Amino acid sequence: MRFLVGGGPGDAYGDAFDKVGATEVSEIKLEGARYILLKLDENIDVKGLETDHVLVKGRYVGQTLDDIRDDKDRRTSGTVALYLVEPTNVHHAGKRKFLRYIKYNGVGSCDPA
């Protein structure tokens, strides 16, 4: 599935990057939470971390990954918690040690493209 992902001012709060296209790679579970792993169409550079992968999960209580994918309720569906993934460690996705290689970026947007 395709998405448009953005971070920071204009989308929400956190470190800024302009909206970029992304493709869903997989759904993963880490410490009881479910995330969508996205491969960005281009690299982003946020405070010196250059990456082409991000994780997103629901920002609001009760918001599911299907809500993000479905985009029916525009008030909450596109608002996500956004995590940057260290590019050399994407292969650890879904493993417990993967938590060491992600960095919370803040609240962003993730809308079906």
Write the layout of secondary structure elements.
Layout: E1 2-7, E2 17-30, E3 33-46, E4 49-58, H1 65-70, E5 79-85, E6 102-112
Antiparallel strand pairs: 1-2, 1-6, 2-3, 3-4, 4-5, 5-6
Protein architecture, described:
A hairpin with a 2-residue loop joins strand 3 and strand 4 (49-58). Strands 1-2-3-4-5-6 form a six-stranded antiparallel β-barrel. The chain has one helix and six strands. By secondary structure, the chain is mostly beta strands. The termini are close together. It is 5% helix and 55% strand. It has one domain. The chain has one helix at residues 65-70, and strands at 2-7, 17-30, 33-46, 49-58, 79-85, 102-112. The longest helix is centred in the middle third of the chain and has 6 residues, at 65-70.
